[in-house]
Amino acid sequence: MSEGLRENCGVFGIFGHEDASALTALGLHALQHRGQEAVGIVSFDGLQFFAERKLGLVGDHFSNPNVIARLSGSSAIGHVRYATTGNTALRNIQPLFADLWGGGLACAHNGNLTNSRMLRAELVRAGAIFQSTSDTETILQLVARDRSPRMIERLIGALHQIEGAFALVFLTTKKLIGVRDPHGIRPLVLGSLNGAPILTSETCALDIIGAKFEREIDPGEVVVVTEDGIESLKPFPPKHPRPCIFERIYFARPDSIVDGKSIYDYRHALGRELAQEASVEADVVIPVPDSGVPAAIGYAITANLPFELGIIRNHYVGRTFIQPTQKIRELGVRLKHNINRSRVNGKRVVLIDDSIVRGTTSVKLVRMMYEAGAKEVHFCVASPPICHPDFYGIDTPLEEELLASQYSLDGMRDFIGADSLTFLSLEGVYRAMGMESRDINRPQFADHCFTGDYPTRLVDESYDRHQDQLSLLTESA
Question: Known catalytic residues?
Fold first, then answer.
């Protein structure tokens, strides 16, 4: 993806292994694509919890054996983060930990709650003291106020009060607990390593440590791991599953497996569908790396066109590059992408990307293609136009900042400066996912960024509007 969307988060937990913290760090390495702003691990040694939380990448901190040595214990959970709610600050780095009645509780969360601001306001009015601005702390506060005798009952009581998307991993003094929201919007899988159960966001985190994939956690399922084994609970009323379609289109690593099929194969199929819908007279197919590569390969094979790496990506560009002047800021895209002139000069180019969000980087890449001598640039996108924001853990812009919500197709083409612009249809996406069509009455995916059909209530959006109205009434009075 050339710009705009940011990954959500990645979680990992393991129970009953002598190298729990080291294995958690390795698992988080495999999930680094899901969040590059912060990383944390909490472990338990049978007597006390230990925590290490840092801004930056996994390798910046957890490759140090002294750090791993401080995280003693045979059980641990970890988290890589990109901020969706709560800013990037030490107090928001997960896993969050609370010392509660009945024992400590650590929590790592992938997703976003759609009623957290309303719940937070109610909790604060009731006397709760928050230490972070993350919506994840709301869950811990709800658990703390529940008076059920067992921790799992208190946890389930809290889960019944939250809405939105969540894949959660908890660590208590005796349990590792995994939870997936009733619609299954965010992913969570179960694995094992030499008898030690593992809960994590993607199968690639199992592969890196040689663990076995057992199964995906069902939507609405609570998995409780103890020394006695694994228990599966279904405490929520059944809801129609709607996993996030962007996991298949963009977020998950290409070597991860979802529903028994590799993410790479899904994206390859997206490219094949795109080629059937967008026939372009051209000389070469070029992906926007890295996320556009599988779709571009599928497109090139189906269109019988050469596939070339016409854009070379610099993988060593961090998020903290200083851009002191407008001139330098405009050159920023060249830090990440450079045109391979020998593959572009004099060619009619089909440029393949997985999506367009704001369009700003797309503009720069098209311009760079022409500067490198391209005769024509045809921009083909392996997903539909993103017209609506996400509220489930993807950092999308406001609707008025989304290119597709502001312009017609011709207007978007003129904005990015390409000779043509084509998006894959929503029906094409569903065909690539192995389905004949989208069920209008019971959509198979959370595809709200394309359709505006949100799978849950957006409580906080209504709550915020109500609060704004109250503020205006107060001011006018």
Answer: 9
